[in-house]
Design goal:
Elements: H1 6-36, E1 45-47, E2 50-51, H2 57-67, H3 70-73, E3 76-80, E4 83-87, E5 94-96, H4 98-107, H5 113-126, E6 129-131, E7 135-137, H6 139-153, E8 161-165, E9 168-172, E10 177-180, H7 182-194, E11 199-200, E12 205-208, H8 216-227, E13 231-232, E14 245-246
């Protein structure tokens, strides 16, 4: 007959034994799987959609360099009103690193500790895992390209004004100022390049409104005043002073 004191010990022993067995199986599977694919990328791993399963790092780098031509053939679109600009990722400072990308694929399922490695191995084997390509983004090149777009996009703030051309009142409307935010646009560009896909990058344009945008009503009032005869009279008029003068 089992005593009340021995029952908790048996439950604890069962739990410890079960965990030890689970840990042993996990370690055996993880290390055995890594030995089975020593020097090779695990099955189910790809980079930007290119399958590199079972390849060595060098072979994977070669396949990636021959297959992924996005930096040179890709198209990145910028739009501002009716103006369009299309550039390749390479023209925007992007360089693809196939060796580093192959190394990242090789490390998938081999990092993150015991359980992280196991999770990566099972995920790749069961559902497939796509590793993000490693790119070098020279923002100085992209900055220069965006500055050229800014030459077209940027415009200063102009206040509305009135001026005379002879006797004609001319109203000059105001203009909303626009400035291309280069740093904010670079963030969107970097995210788009990381996807390794063609796409449109939004231009972050900041606007500033003038204090006076439209003075057409003031111009019309001035025209009405100028269209009527102008009479000049002296204040405190006394007998013998000149009378009112009409212009």
């Amino acid at each position: 007959m089992t005593s009340n004191h021995s029952l908790p010990r048996q439950i604890l022993a069962t739990l410890v034994g079960g965990f030890s067995l689970f840990l042993t199986v996990t370690i055996t599977w993880t290390l055995g799987y890594q030995l089975l694919y020593a020097g090779r990328i695990f099955p189910g791993v790809s980079v930007a959609g290119v399958d590199v399963s079972g390849l060595s790092i060098n072979d994977a780098a070669l396949r990636l360099s021959q297959t992924l031509s996005f930096p040179n053939t890709g198209k990145i679109l910028f739009r501002a009103g009716d103006n369009l600009w299309v550039a390749s990722p390479a023209e925007l400072g992007m360089v693809f690193d196939p060796t580093a990308s192959a190394l990242a694929a090789y490390r998938y399922g081999r990092s993150g500790g015991l359980f992280g490695a196991l999770s990566g191995q099972v995920s790749a084997r069961g559902l497939g895992s796509d590793v993000a390509p490693v790119i070098i983004f020279d923002q100085r090149v992209a900055y220069t390209y965006l500055q050229n777009i800014g030459v077209v996009v940027n415009q200063p703030v102009v206040e509305a004004s009135l001026h005379l051309e002879g006797t004609n009142v001319v109203a000059q409307p105001g203009q909303v100022g626009r400035v291309l935010n280069l740093d904010a646009t670079l963030i969107y560009l970097g995210a788009q390049l990381q996807t390794f896909r063609d796409g449109e990058v939004p231009l972050v344009i900041q606007e500033a409104a003038p204090k006076l945008l439209d003075v057409s009503s003031q111009a019309e009032a001035a025209r009405r005043i100028l269209s009527q005869p102008l009479t000049i009279s002296l204040p405190n008029y006394r007998s013998g002073d000149p009378g009112p003068v009409d212009l």
